[in-house]
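INFO  loader      accepted 1 record
INFO  loader      residues=119
INFO  predictor   begin
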Amino acid sequence: MSDTNPQIDEQLNKLAELCCEQLEGNDPSSTIDEASTKSLLKSLLMSGFSRKEGASLQVEIENRVKDRCRDTAMHRGGALSSISGQLQKQFEELARWESKQPSDDSKSKAANISSATDA
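INFO  predictor   done
INFO  writer      dumping tokens
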């Protein structure tokens, strides 16, 4: 994506680097550290990546991984698709969570027990 801002570019590069490390690792059952990906994905969301026209996190990450670690990405294409798909899913869940509004039809609740009763 050529029209990204420097913050989005940096976050995408860090995610691509994490993917390369995962692909180059010897333990195929290990997963990317969820805490670090969650903070990067949240930063990406707050930087406005989801508002970009035609923005696909999965495609963007796969392209950057292929640029960074071409040989590994070519030989482990299925693993790359799996990792980038998981990141896309986490990003979508985070975007959904961040965009939720409190329900208007839910009743307000008492702050503590004494305000909930006549005591």
